[in-house]
Structure formats: structure tokens, C-alpha cells
Amino acid sequence: MQISKWKRIVIKVGSALIAPHGNGCSSHYLLSIAQFIVRCREQNIEVVLVSSGSIAAGSHLFPGEVKNIATKKAMAAAGQTEMMATWDKLFDFPTAQILLTHADLKDRERYTSVRETLFSLLEYGLLPIVNENDTIVTDKLKVGDNDNLSAMIATAADADALIICSDIDGLYTANPQVDKKAKEIHVACPEGLIDLYLEG
Ligand code: GLU
Q1: What radius of gyration, in Å, describes the C-alpha atoms of the chain?
Q2: 115 CB-near residues (< 8 Å, 6+ apart)
Q3: From ligand 1's centre to the CA of 198, what distance in Å?
Q4: Long-range contacts of range 178-187, CB-CB < 8 Å, 24 or more positions apart?
Q5: Ligand 1 site-directed mutation target among 12, 15, 49, most atoms within 8 Å of CB
Q6: Which of 68, 73, 94, 145 is most buried, judged by most C-beta within 10 A?
Q7: φ/ψ of residue 95, rounded to 5
Q8: Each residue's pLDDT tens digit, 168-179
Q9: Cβ < 6 A, ligand 1 pocket
Q10: What is the spatial distance between Cα 106 and Cα 45, in angstroms, rounded to a whole number?
Q11: In this structure, is the dihedral angle defined by the CA atoms of residues 177, 174, 79 and 161, taken in order, positive or negative?
């Protein structure tokens, strides 16, 4: 689908762009992403933002080697406020926070409620900013990472495109920063669409 035909998109921003210097939130990368969001809205493209980075944003408030789960959740709780404040300052329209777990997207009633809230926010011109609810998340409830969460939100919001902004330059078979054998995937296509893609 051509960009000019997009009606609604989801943009996911990774932790490395939110707090790149390990010292709280920085607008270094966020400024140009915010400008892109403003341009999209000027062209009547609705935007839902999925923002990681609460743990990264809050970690500077918990000095030393504290890496247990409870402390990470505390980092997320503190960093989420700082992250929302940083995003909010970059826009002259209001933002709104949505925190979710996998359980919320798996349950039909809650899923519908998430959709209704998203659509209502978009209808009134607010920018929904979604993150996983790290305080109540457990291994069982975890979506995985926010790349997965953003894909689920793109589906829930009936989005035409999902744009993932990160410090990795493409889609890989594994994390290229860890696995030297990771290969870049140039085209990812749902199974049923592969033939269509090759024909087209
Ligand atoms: N919810 C986590 C945070 O805000 C991010 C998880 C992820 O990016 O995978 O720090």
C-alpha cells in the first residue's frame, strides 16, 4: 500500500532511542520521530505510538548493580512518567497513556475495550502512547517484547502500516548485536501472501 493511502499507522520506538545515554530520557532521537508524527497527522494519517523505554528511562534513579525483577519494575514505574513527560513536551496536541499486558489482548472483552479506547482517542485528536504494563507483567502475561506488542496493537487498531524505529538497521533472523550468524530478512510476508508477493 502506498504511503499516500495510509489512514492509520503504528510507530514503535525502542528503548535505545528513548534513553541512549543511560541517563534518563533524551530528545536526541525523539525530536525527528515527533516531527514525522506531526507531518503524518497534518496529512490526516492517524498515528498510534508504541513506546518502550520506561526501564531504560528510570534506571538512572536506581544506581548500582540492581538487576532483580522487582527493581526493574520499579525502574519502569518511575521511567514511564519521565518518558510520557518527554513525549508530551514534543507535541502541541495532547497525548494519552495506555498500559497493557498480553492478558488484556487475549481476552475478547478487554481487547474490545482497548480498541474502543484507541479509536476514541484518535477521533478526538489525541496521540495514544502504548507500553506494556511492566508493574503487573509476569512471564505468563508478557507479550514478549514491544516489537510483538506493536504488531498486536497494529492489528487491534486496524493500522495500514507498522514502523519500527530502533538502533538495528533491519529485520534479522536473530539479534545481530549478539549473534554473528544473524541474517537480514529483506522481505517478510505472511505465508498466504508470499505467492501474491512473488507474482506482483
Ligand atoms: N516495557 C519495556 C519498557 O518500557 C520495554 C520492553 C521492550 O521493549 O521489549 O522498558
Answers
A1: 17
A2: 156, 157
A3: 35
A4: none
A5: 15
A6: 73
A7: -110, 165
A8: 888 888 889 899
A9: 15, 52-56, 76, 131-132, 134, 145-146
A10: 27
A11: positive
